[in-house]
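README: folding subset

This subset contains proteins for which both the sequence and a predicted structure token string are available. Records are stored as plain text. Below is the entry for RTX-III toxin determinant A from serotype 8 (1052 residues), shown exactly as it appears on disk.
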Amino acid sequence: MSTWSSMLADLKKRAEEAKRQAKKGYDVTKNGLQYGVSQAKLQALAAGKAVQKYGNKLVLVIPKEYDGSVGNGFFDLVKAAEELGIQVKYVNRNELEVAHKSLGTADQFLGLTERGLTLFAPQLDQFLQKHSKISNVVGSSTGDAVSKLAKSQTIISGIQSVLGTVLAGINLNEAIISGGSELELAEAGVSLASELVSNIAKGTTTIDAFTTQIQNFGKLVENAKGLGGVGRQLQNISGSALSKTGLGLDIISSLLSGVTASFALANKNASTSTKVAAGFELSNQVIGGITKAVSSYILAQRLAAGLSTTGPAAALIASSISLAISPLAFLRVADNFNRSKEIGEFAERFKKLGYDGDKLLSEFYHEAGTIDASITTISTALSAIAAGTAAASAGALVGAPITLLVTGITGLISGILEFSKQPMLDHVASKIGNKIDEWEKKYGKNYFENGYDARHKAFLEDSFSLLSSFNKQYETERAVLITQQRWDEYIGELAGITGKGDKLSSGKAYVDYFQEGKLLEKKPDDFSKVVFDPTKGEIDISNSQTSTLLKFVTPLLTPGTESRERTQTGKYEYITKLVVKGKDKWVVNGVKDKGAVYDYTNLIQHAHISSSVARGEEYREVRLVSHLGNGNDKVFLAAGSAEIHAGEGHDVVYYDKTDTGLLVIDGTKATEQGRYSVTRELSGATKILREVIKNQKSAVGKREETLEYRDYELTQSGNSNLKAHDELHSVEEIIGSNQRDEFKGSKFRDIFHGADGDDLLNGNDGDDILYGDKGNDELRGDNGNDQLYGGEGNDKLLGGNGNNYLSGGDGNDELQVLGNGFNVLRGGKGDDKLYGSSGSDLLDGGEGNDYLEGGDGSDFYVYRSTSGNHTIYDQGKSSDLDKLYLSDFSFDRLLVEKVDDNLVLRSNESSHNNGVLTIKDWFKEGNKYNHKIEQIVDKNGRKLTAENLGTYFKNAPKADNLLNYATKEDQNESNLSSLKTELSKIITNAGNFGVAKQGNTGINTAALNNEVNKIISSANTFATSQLGGSGMGTLPSTNVNSMMLGNLARAA
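--- output ---
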């Protein structure tokens, strides 16, 4: 006979034997259940329809003659049952006694009758009298003030809940009538529920023993595949972590005592094969020292009945148990303790600063971890039992009833655990809340505000180096620093857990004073009238007697008041809604008589209102109104609308410190100097500081708290039409944003800085000073004596009519002037194009390959060894007297030659392609222009005239040393003197430097002199001297320039 045939025969034999055993067990069970029922058979059959109707409901049965006045809240129990929808049935005592006798429920308050699941009122009443502690355990979440009725509801609904778990899927009405395994299961579940409730009530503190069990569990799990990390974390749970001295451990220990007692293995003599078949041996190997068993009744009657113990079956059991254990559940347990430890360490610092809220939060997570560890460990053990049993009975004919039975009982216990967890966690949270109430009653202060105070003290300690440096950074004697302590997650979490979110604010603002690198502990005398009221939006530092910085160190929430209300939105859900009554502006009164700096860049001026597809993001704007004093002030603006009244002095407004949007600065309608309207586009990629409403969620078991609060974020506005509008009064100088800005000057003097971005600056009328700064900018001076500085980038500078000073800076720039004035054109680095006008111009190409065109008038060109390949094209008149100054060349180092119609000069040390100066069309005849440079002067003052060169090239048109064409005067002082006169006349007139006064420009004279010095010293002849004078007023005279020329010539 083949192996396969043998296996089939053996399987058939085993199946027949199992069938006989099952029938035998069924007959015994049926006979046992029918015992005592025969006397009530007619009543049971007559109640068949009632059973179908009420078989899955819980009924509170009360004898009609029972005296509830002697019980413990008996009438409260009746009322609670009615409120919960549980049927209350009054019956004759004889009828009740028959039911008790027939179904074996005489000594229990919970049982089965033909009515279904039944709570027997007298037994329940007596039980509550005997075990009053059960009311405290199950009802601890309700607090001391809750009525007896509510406690009774909690007790009955709890029993109802756990019964629903264990009896799910069981058709009780059929089970009661027909008997069989389902009825046995139901009876066992009800019996165990009664036993557990009783044991929980009588529980004692066994928490220390449980600590050891968790640690042993961790050691065993560490060796299990894939669970090593979990095991190591569980071993870190020390005995102190589960100390019975903590909050709420009286409840936890009672629960553990009852559950572990229910799992005591009564049949210690059960065979090893029986344990293996049931899955207990393997589950013990994985779970460790936590006892997992069921009653001897279940073990003897079900699990030992013919279950396979072969190797494949054992492997199936092992794998099923492994899947039943949830590593994530134990990681959550360990995370609770780790979070408690983490917050506890964090709390130590703030406890020293006067706030112990973090310690309370740590205690909560410590106790929540204890509760979670208890319930998770036991639930995992239950899962292992159920999984092992199901796997072991997979091939048995009696497997389905066994699996159903064990699953039902483990589900019942899990239901009790889950029902008990929420009251325990709420009990812990309530104790913490009481501590907060006691503190507030003692100190008369908001507990959570005290937490913000402690956070701010820590901020001052941590940021002292930065905060104390602001005086020096902003060049003021004193700093008034405003800091917003924003929403704190730990403080918010504590408020949520304790249900006190309505007593919490979104943060708190603080004012601190720094002087000479020190924090002033008390408000200085001259700040006696400092006002900072974030609820009204008022700031006043007008009484300051020193130069002062007003700075918002961190983003400041919009002004206004907050209110909160906590409401319940579900069975376990609560939300604390925030209502903000905001102000529409900040009003700042600045220092009266001293210069000050106002850094508003962290002022939040947009509060988010709503979002829609059609309109995008919508905001409530808070306008800034700032009244400055009579000193020289600096104002750094934020992204919202502003109204600046600068007062006397030279005042500067900055838009470049933060993202302030695309600017259009318009002074064309100004009737007085310093008045501008500014429009700012805040759409597109512009990022703004906006105030938003956020929420923080915290959980206490099933209870979830949502707290709304104000916070801020730096983000794109999300509104294509969002704009800001500024009005500037008495502002002398404006620095643009880092985007593409447009400046429209007034008819008065304007001082504009483009900052970053490709900007358009138009000075219009007036003697303007325009700075392109970074980017490819276009600067137009228009009418007036203007100063134009291109800065970095490829810029276009148009001086217009008047005496203008143009400096291209780095990049490939184009410089052009109009009219017949005196102009200075400096190319700087890069390949530049310089176009003079009909007047007398100074053209200095600087480094790079430049093109210089002087136009009409007597122009002055500069060339040096670092200039690169330059081309000069002078289209002047025959009466012009143009000059070329070779700043660091002597004639004996230069070669000159005629190339086509051009005169070419280059150093005899350079190649043909580098360091070449070409004077275009020098030799061209027959047109109306004079393309010659009338005089060429070297660094020694030796002079070469156009006539000399013309005569020589007629006779010997070849390359030769330029010295051969020069006049014989060596280092002729008179030649240098004529250069001094030319330069002095151009420089002192260009850009109106010569009449610059403090009241008109506000530009530091030393800075202007530095710019002039750059022009002069670019010719090496002038490099060893500086313009004299450091005060304001008229710049140095021609004699100073003469001295420079003479000294440098002699030095050469």
